[in-house]
Amino acid sequence: MINLNKTVAVVDDDESVRRALKRLLRSAGVEAEIFSSGESLLDALSSATSSVPVCVITDFQMPGIDGLELQRRMIRTGVPIIFITGNDEPAVREKALAQGAAGFLTKPLDGAALIRALQITVGLDRLP
Question: I need a surface site. Which of 38, 79, 80, 90 has the fewest CB within 10 A?
Answer without folding.
Answer: 90
